[in-house]
Amino acid sequence: MKKMRNMPINQLFNRRKFIKLTGLGVGAGVFGLQQIGCKGERRFAQPDIHGFEEAQDNPDASKGWVPVSDRKIRVGLVGYGVCRFSAAFGFQDHPNVEVVAVSDLFPDRCAKLAEVTKCKKTYPSLEELVKDDKIEAVFVATDAPSHMKHCIEVLKHGKHVASAVPAVFGSLEEADKLFDAVKKSGMKYMMFETSCFREDLYAMRQIYKAGGFGKLVYTEGEYWHYSEKGIGSYNNWRHGMPPQWYPTHSDAYYVGVTGGSFTEVSCLGMPSLMERYQEGNNRYKNPFGTEISLYRTSEGGMARMGRSSDTPGGHEFLEDGRVRGERGSFYEKYEGLEKNLPDLTRPPLPPGVSAGGHGGSHGRLTDEFVTAILQDRKPLVDIATALNMTVGGIVAHQSALKGEEWMKIPQYNL
């Protein structure tokens, strides 16, 4: 008990959550949610940003993993900026991947990316990398405003593409363009939404598919990421950005659970005291550091999704959610009418692939994308799901600027 009293609050919260999950059979052979500290030894250089803490390794993490092929997919990695994301998801460690080329616009970052991924081939830009005929798939971990443009460029060259979040940045027109490009290409597209492989959301999705909730009546998702001075970014794109333009970590707690979407929204925003949100201090003309959305869902239910960057104290970093359905509810554990729950254990990791950050989701996202290519199937967060997780926030911000006006949301279906 003394050890737990001295534990940082985020670790104590995650330990309690893990205990509750394992009490219902979720945790057998699963990664715990307790995180190691940011400042310890790392597999590669990573900034001290909340959420990037790597999940504690489990020696049995690969138990039960069965390869679907002995083929190695030739992958290119792009982007080694503030978040170091192109190296953070473990492509270089996957037994079915060969990292054949890497790229970053800054030569020093490009060299470091090549070093940490043990890749000998570098390119000065994504536009040059995609011309390499050896590459079959590309992971785009560039600045959010460039995700759409870069993913379309990859698809034009006949390569599969995975993207960091969000799928598009603040533009419904870009969402339509990306959707059409993916359909036209016939290639695989996947957005790496980390919440989808967090332990709680994975369990919710399995229970939902088994009918343990029925239709969801009410859902909550939260993405709190307080930052007093802001997080650095290429061309300063994060500075003063509308919170709901980066909504997927919270919105996944409905879309990623059900495969459904949001159909309309009313969003509240409160003018922020922070300097970067003051008039004239950001390119977006955005006054809000916190935006709270009320959605109507495609099942006819309701969802409240919160996104905040300017509220200190409490859980300054939190990606969390809860659901209430016609037959049961889930917050930290399932309670409801279903007595025969499905297996809630997250998929095993390939040998040598770490669970990684964001609750141990990184390695599983990479394995899902790679396996979808090898099996020629739809990946978990395909283009329709990715856009349904993204565009609700774009419309939500419009609603907040218009005094909480109810607004319709575009729908994407394959």
Give the CATH architecture of the domain at 195-347 and 383-408: 2-Layer Sandwich
Number of helices: 12
Mean pLDDT: 89
Helix content: 25-40%
CATH topology of the domain at 195-347 and 383-408: Dihydrodipicolinate Reductase, domain 2
Low-confidence stretches: 1-46
Query: What portion of the residues fall into strands of 2 or more residues?
Result: 15-25%
Largest sheet: 8 strands, mixed
Please write the string of helix (H) and strand (E) elements: HHEHEHEHEHEHEHEHEEEEEEHHHE
Shape: globular
Number of DSSP E strands: 14
Overall description:
The protein has a domain at 195-347 and 383-408: 2-Layer Sandwich (Dihydrodipicolinate Reductase, domain 2). The longest helix is centred in the C-terminal third of the chain and has 19 residues, at 383-401. The protein has twelve helices and 14 strands. The protein starts with a helix and ends in a 6-residue tail after the last strand. It has 414 residues and is α/β, with parallel strands linked by helices. Residues 1-46 have low confidence and may be disordered. Helix content is 29%, strand content 19%.
Summarize the structure in short.
With 414 residues, the chain is α/β, with parallel strands linked by helices.
Question: Helix and strand layout, with pairings?
Answer:
Blueprint: H1 2-5, H2 9-23, E1 73-78, H3 85-88, E2 97-103, H4 107-117, E3 122-123, H5 126-129, E4 137-140, H6 147-156, E5 160-163, H7 172-185, E6 189-191, H8 199-209, E7 216-225, H9 248-258, E8 262-271, E9 288-297, E10 302-308, E11 317-325, E12 328-330, E13 334-336, H10 357-360, H11 362-375, H12 383-401, E14 407-408
Parallel strand pairs: 1-2, 1-4, 2-3, 4-5, 5-6, 7-10
Antiparallel strand pairs: 7-11, 8-9, 8-14, 9-10, 11-12, 12-13
Helix pairs in contact: 6-7, 7-12, 8-9, 9-12
